[in-house]
Write a structure and sequence with these properties.
Elements: H1 2-7, H2 9-20, H3 24-30, H4 34-37, E1 48-49, E2 60-61, E3 65-72, E4 76-83, H5 94-112, E5 120-128, E6 131-139, E7 144-145, H6 146-152, H7 157-176, E8 189-192, E9 197-200, H8 242-257, H9 260-269, H10 277-281, H11 287-296, H12 300-313, H13 364-399, H14 404-423, H15 426-460, H16 468-480, H17 486-491, H18 495-503, H19 509-514, H20 525-550, H21 552-583, H22 589-597
Antiparallel strand pairs: 1-3, 2-3, 3-4, 4-6, 5-6, 7-8, 8-9
Length: 608
């Protein structure tokens, strides 16, 4: 490896850049203080970041980006999309590509509406460490993710048919403008107006005619929505979204005709709309295609959609030529309201990797804020004493004993202003944030210590071995729900082998398990070995899960391991906070007063 990196400086450089690039958790910590970390462009530094019940910024994370919801002055809600890797799935032209996409979407908005919302590319948008990073800024609006929408309307056939038609119209509209989304899948489709409106988000695989000079992405889209033969070389080919649209429409019409299939296949485990890559590789033995063909005997529209999708799976040249016919003519969709780039899922609460609380003191924005604060402080210290003295004398001299409360009221007002100046001191706010995080971590540490004590008591209890017959019953139940076609994607088994075994009655992992791993004579030896290894992995995983669920001692051991990992990470962070606390400048009220009367530059009083 050392020789390889020595001979490949470009690879070494990329590894170093990836390691040094802020991740979603680092950006999340930075967004706790937008005034210090965000640019002044578009008033981002004056924004309020949407937070959870613990006061931490809400985040939506994806493979290459993290999204925050910000509220600008004037109650303008926006999405701030920050990249979490140097180049994502592209080479070294992402910033230029992002700028070109922004310009293209703005130019094409009259033709495609807000099907793909336009955005602004903001260079140097956020400051982290000693570097600045670009961001994409776009309006925020509501929208329901595709799978959640389908789950909620699984028994409403008319709504699902409407949504299928909307998807068809959307792809038609994009294709007429020469635009390909490139990754049409459930996480990138937001649904509104009862299925009459959709918005496509995520720009990583987007193609417009203006991007013909850019390198294609390394990713070819979500495997559960793409033709098995699709490769990055198909980037930019007209009709690139057609196969994905066929998958979505067939899935929607199948749920509309047979709502029970949604529960049976559980929405492809949250990774697809019924169909998966394994189904496309071997439609003949796919349980989903079998259910679809059975339901299609009673629904002509479903019959056409499923037959076309199944045929396309066997045609390597059909990656882009798929055409979905409309069941009924529908008017072109109206211009859509802009929606944010949405990704999933949320960051774990305790997996935060904050940046230094001392670092913002080096930023130009912080220095300017401190200078303005110092002017206000010195003005207060200059005017408050003589004004207070004059008002005190006036109150007692003019009003005698009748108005003495005026003097005390003015003194109280001065104390309130002094308290406000102290509480809004930038250094104190950073110090308070440091102390707050330390308190949260120490509270979590006490909770985990108490939890660890309870788990150790469970761990010390005599282990109860589950009865063998119950374990076998659990294995049989779980393996029955695992189609053999899944081995195509999981283990690389040839589709022809799976079809042959299906003809012999072996269609699930349970059938293979009942054969004790032995396969019919003539089965390819390599595929047989892959199937046995795949089955063995399934058995080990389910046995471990069953043991954890039925053996408190083993479950306690697993939980203790997770607690130990959390405590190790927390100990590192607490040590970092302790070092920062010792290095932090004095932020007491006396220090503020000394700062106000000092004649030296205010910035020299804060050393980092």
């Amino acid at each position: 490896m050392a020789v390889l990196l020595k001979d490949s400086p470009q690879i070494l450089s990329r590894i170093q850049r990836v390691a040094a690039y802020p991740d979603a958790l680092t950006f999340r910590e930075a967004l706790q203080n937008p005034a210090a970390y965000l640019t002044e462009a578009f008033d981002l530094n004056r924004a309020t970041v949407a937070a959870d019940r613990w006061g931490l910024p809400l985040t939506y994370t994806g493979r290459f980006a993290v999204v925050f919801r910000l509220m600008l002055p004037g109650n303008v809600a926006i999405a701030l999309r920050l990249f979490t890797s140097p180049d994502g799935s592209f080479s070294h032209d992402r910033d230029a590509r992002s700028e070109q996409i922004a310009a293209s979407l703005t130019r094409l908005q009259g033709r495609i509406g807000d099907l793909i919302p336009p955005f602004l590319h903001v260079p140097d948008a956020v400051w982290v460490g000693d570097s600045t990073y670009a961001a994409q800024v776009l309006p925020w609006a509501g929208g329901e993710p595709l799978l959640r929408f389908v789950s909620r309307h699984a028994h409403d056939a008319s709504v699902l048919e409407t949504l299928a038609q909307t998807v068809t119209n959307a792809v038609d509209r994009l294709e007429s403008a020469g635009v390909t989304h490139g990754d049409l899948q459930h996480d990138n489709i937001l649904v509104g107006e009862g299925g009459r409106r959709i918005t496509l988000v995520d720009y990583d695989a987007l193609y417009t005619p203006d991007l013909s000079g850019f390198a294609p992405p390394a990713e070819a889209g979500h495997a559960n929505y793409q033709h098995p033969a699709r490769t990055p070389a198909n980037y930019g080919v007209p009709g690139g979204d057609r196969f994905a649209a066929a998958v979505i429409c067939a899935g929607l019409r199948l749920v509309a005709a047979e709502p029970g299939v949604w529960e049976t296949f559980a929405g492809s485990g949250g990774e697809g709309i019924l169909f998966t890559a394994a189904d496309f590789a071997a439609p003949e033995v796919s349980p989903v295609f079998q259910a679809a063909n059975s339901a299609a005997t009673r629904d002509d529209a479903l019959l056409q959609a499923v037959a076309e999708l199944e045929n396309l799976c066997h045609e390597p040249g059909a990656i882009t030529v798929c055409r979905i016919e409309s069941v009924a003519p529908v008017a072109a969709p109206p211009v859509l309201p802009a929606l944010p780039c949405r990704v999933s899922p949320k960051c774990a609460e305790e997996e935060i990797r904050p940046v230094s609380y001392l670092a913002p003191m080096r930023s130009g924005a912080f220095v300017r804020q401190e200078a303005a604060h110092l002017v206000a402080l010195r003005g207060f210290l200059l005017l408050a004493p003589p004004t207070a003295t004059l008002i005190w004398l006036w109150a007692w001299g003019a009003g005698g004993e009748k108005w003495p409360f005026l003097a005390y009221l003015f003194v109280l007002l001065l104390l309130t202003v002094a308290t406000f100046l102290y509480q809004t001191w930038g250094a104190k706010k950073l110090h308070d944030a440091l102390e707050l995080e330390g308190a949260k971590l120490r509270s979590a540490e006490r909770f985990d210590a108490e939890r660890e004590k309870q788990l150790r008591q469970k761990q010390a209890a005599p282990a109860a071995k589950p009865e063998a017959w119950r374990e076998r019953a659990h294995l049989r139940q779980v393996l029955t729900s695992v189609p053999l076609s899944r081995a195509i994607g999981d283990a690389g088994v040839a589709a022809s082998t799976v079809r042959t075994l299906g003809e012999a009655g072996i269609t699930t992992a349970a059938h293979l398990w009942n054969w004790h791993g032995f396969l019919p004579t003539g089965t390819n030896a390599t595929d047989a070995a892959l199937l046995r290894a795949w089955l063995g992995g399934l058995e080990e995983r389910e046995k471990h899960r069953f043991a954890c669920e039925n053996d408190p001692a083993q479950a306690a051991t697993v939980a203790l391991g997770k607690i130990a990992e959390r405590r190790a990470v927390r100990a590192v962070r607490l040590a970092e906070l302790s070092r920062e606390r010792r290095a932090f400048p004095d932020t007491s009220f006396a220090a503020l007063l000394r700062r106000g009367v000092a004649l030296r530059s205010p910035h020299r009083a804060i050393t980092v």
